[in-house]
Amino acid sequence: MSIDPAELSGVRRGPLHAGERVTLADMRGHRHTLLLEPGRIFHTTKGALAHDDIIGRPQGVVVSTVGGLEFTVFRPLLHEYTVSMPREAAVIYPKDAAQIVLWADVFPGARVLESGVGSGALSLYLLRAIGPTGTLHSYERRDEFAQVALGNVEEFLGGPHPGWTVTVGGLVETIADEPVDRAILDMLRPWDCIDAVAERLVPGGLLCCYVTTTTQMGCVADQLRHHGGFTEPTITETTVREWHAEGLAIRPGHGTSAHTGFLIVSRRMAPGVLAPVRKRRPAPGAYGPDYHGPVPRTVAAEHLEANRRRAADDSDRIAPAVRKALRRRVR
């Protein structure tokens, strides 16, 4: 099934049809997603609502159950669809997807690489951003995740996107030999794929990694510095808070979307060109004896040796006190 390039955004116009998803919202803000089917009934605590009362009507109407409960009816927006669609894996939430499209500077016609498809949420945002002339090559290790993502994307768009390719397999093992303008990594160990991505990313291209923990964040940043072919990474975290405004009662809302993940963004240098070395010295314990990750080019060998000596001296200094405390505890 092919779709008109003008409809690749997933936006539909005109009356509501059977087979479409709609969002019902009551006056208390409760939302329900329905897949419209002729003859089907939506049941609530205040009576039933027939799907036939919605099919054929425009968006923005108000429908009522037999018990008088009113709902507004709209087609779901992209961010509403991605948090309510079927899923096998956790999805990237709208606030982070929006930042990825912004910070990675995804543009119409871009050639984008995505690793970690999950349930297809981020794929939808990227496909909308690249438009009908761009290409998105997505990689996913697990076939069941890829199938769910394909179904979700095709349902929202109304059919397959001609510029989207999904490859099942690990990124390093299956990456295509093709130039890309942007690379988005949403995976457990993105630092293992930086070398492979760097070979395909055009000079000036952007790499954006989405991770959920500070340990992952540190590994990605240090691997980028160690590689040398990327600019100093920019690391951000996004928090979204709703507000309540009614007359003089203006206050933060009860719903706050706090930490979900970190974005690490860096640009590709030209072939054979190393990024300038930062002049700032790292903190004394940043690359101490307990650190086992990649060491950036900016960290001198004498700095590492000084950290090891300092740690050894500290251990020798506190060892007698520790032994004394243990003897007291045994007694």
From TrEMBL:
GO terms for molecular function: tRNA (adenine(58)-N1)-methyltransferase activity. Residues 81-246 form the tRNA (adenine(58)-N(1))-methyltransferase catalytic subunit TRM61 C-terminal domain. Transmembrane segments: none annotated. It comes from Propionibacterium acidifaciens F0233. InterPro entries: SAM-dependent_MTases_sf, TRM61_C, tRNA_MeTrfase_Gcd14. The keyword Methyltransferase applies. It comes from the Bacteria. GO terms for biological process: tRNA methylation. Keywords: Methyltransferase, S-adenosyl-L-methionine, Transferase, tRNA processing. The keyword tRNA processing applies. GO terms for cellular component: tRNA (m1A) methyltransferase complex. This is tRNA methyltransferase complex GCD14 subunit.
